[in-house]
Amino acid sequence: MAHEFIYQAYKLARHYPPDKTVLENISLSFYPGAKIGVLGSNGAGKSSLLKIMAGLDDGYSGEARLTAGFSVGYLPQEPQLDADKDVKGNVMEGVAEVQSIIDRYNEVMAMWADPDADYDKIGKEQAQLEDKIAATDAWSLERNVDIA
């Protein structure tokens, strides 16, 4: 079975006025589950590339495409933290989208107890949620947050 890329970029370039070029003719593709490292000297464009991938920078030329159903998280070098929250609270804010998948999964699992429920519909949604959970490694979310 051929693997589908979850992210593709083709001929990306990022220029900052008046004459600073940090990315030029960058093409790349990522398979699901790939572990990627971005290395380079200061000012080489690492953060620019990651911002483009996360959809936070649209001032580039070329193509950047994320496959539907996937998302890119971006943690800036200097994150904006909520001073009213502890470390875990700030981390949980950053993984709220993944946590919402787990929360919905728990709601769907509780629906199985309803004798009048549409079990076919519940089963389909459960399967979709399990796929999303597996793709985002959400089964390990609580452990990963505790480690953070």
Briefly note the structural class of the backbone. Answer: alpha+beta
Order of helices and strands: EEHEHHHH
Number of domains: 2
The global form is globular
Record field, number of beta strands: 3
The main pleated sheet reads as:
3 strands, antiparallel
Main sheet strand line-up:
2-1-3
Radius of gyration: 19 Å
Low-pLDDT runs of 5+ residues are: none
Compute the separation of the termini in Å: 35 Å
Range of helix content: 25-40%
> Treating each run of at least 4 consecutive H or I residues as one helix, how many helices?
5
Q: Averaged pLDDT, please?
A: 91
**How much of the sequence is in beta strands?**
15-25%
